[in-house]
Specification:
The protein is α/β, with parallel strands linked by helices. It is built from eleven helices and seven strands. The longest helix is centred in the C-terminal third of the chain and has 18 residues, at about 170-185.
Length: about 240
Amino acid sequence: MNCDVTQTYDLLDELKEQKLSSKVEVIVAPPFTNLQSANQALLDTDIEVAAQNMHQASHGAFTGEVSAAMLKSVGVSTVILGHSERRAMFWETNEMLAAKVNTALENDMTVIFCFGEELDDRATGEHFNVVKTQLAEGLFHIEDQHWKQVILAYEPVWAIGTGETASPEQAQEMHEFIRGTILDRYNKSIANNVSILYGGSVKPGNAQEIFGKPDVDGGLIGGAALKAQDFAAIINAFS
């Protein structure tokens, strides 16, 4: 919940002035109120726009919610689902997220599916089990062909907005586990080709080392993306 429409225009204008690597897919996710404005501002670029959330119903008495059709009507066909803040603050369950995933896929949208463990889970050694359950209950019902519409985003909740960051080795360990879990449920092609992003206090100073790990395919960037120069430096950490 950052940036009004003027601030969004200013941030995107600053981002467009940066020299960004052509090898990296860049997606920005402004609030609902700024989605159409952002799309218009980015028409002359390769930067895509995603929504931060979406309701699972197509329409109805769900005051304050936004449907897949509403998003697509303003040119948005990518949606973030299951962000840790949605899970923690708004009690989104794995079952609810499975329904949202279904709706997004039925509407030919791309899903950025978020998941990750709390600090207590890691402290008690349950982090692998928590991640496996979130994937199994929220995502592993989809058919093989739908994986081309899915991007995964691993968020160690204890490293979001805290200044703490999973070490590159911890990130790689979990990303490798995630890929192996997908292999066990699906097949080698899906496991190898799905993009797995890391989200948790990524900054210009640590991006290159994190992204250099073999199973880390990108980042889900929070606060650092609110500064165009920092966001550009993170993007260019791949090149």
